[in-house]
Amino acid sequence: MKNKINFKTSDLGKMDKQTAVHLINSLGGFKSVALVGTSDGQGNTNLSIFSSFFHIGANPPLIGMIFRPSPPERDTMRNILDTRFYTINHINEKIYKQAHQTSARYNKEISEFDAAGLSAEYKNNFPAPFVLESNIQLGIEFKEKTDISINNTTMIIGEIVQVFIPEDCLSEDGFVNLEKANTVTCSGLDSYHKTVQLDRLSYAKANKEITSILKS
């Protein structure tokens, strides 16, 4: 491996703006990336790609996401606050290009489902649209909004109230096999990746050896 380059915060201001953005966005490592489906009060659908999800808790099952500064006004966040429901849909190898296309800015009258060639799916009387082509789909109910003043972003917290997972991707102990579901991950703003599982390890305890729990 080659010698490491040292960057300081003061160096970022000397870089091309887009270069600095790519650098900082890549430093966090691999991230969850998914499509967020919403609709407004008139039933107009919206679909947008996000890579700012994070687990908050299992009981109740909470998931958070970060919205970048507005303006421009974010249709996704407005729809979430107005209707209180949205979906999170895993991206797979077959749809990652269409998913990326949803990051383009479209007029409010244009649905990103249509623009990207993806299908809105309504089921179980859930009010927000799922992505039909997604293998793992989550129905979320809005719970809390927090404004983060340091960089003018907003954190939205929702509770998972609906889950759709392929039967062969769910283990007996509740573990979800994301590789079987063909879920992809991302780094930076535009790099998409497949994953390879290294292992599943036993619960860590003091004075007890870590062992593999993968079934052969």
TrEMBL record:
The keyword Coiled coil does not apply. Keywords: Flavoprotein, FMN. Pfam families: Flavin_Reduct. The keyword Flavoprotein applies. Residues 33-168 form the Flavin reductase like domain. Its cofactor is FMN. Belongs to the flavoredoxin family. This is Flavin reductase. It comes from Flavobacterium azizsancarii. The lineage of its organism: Bacteria, Pseudomonadati, Bacteroidota, Flavobacteriia, Flavobacteriales.
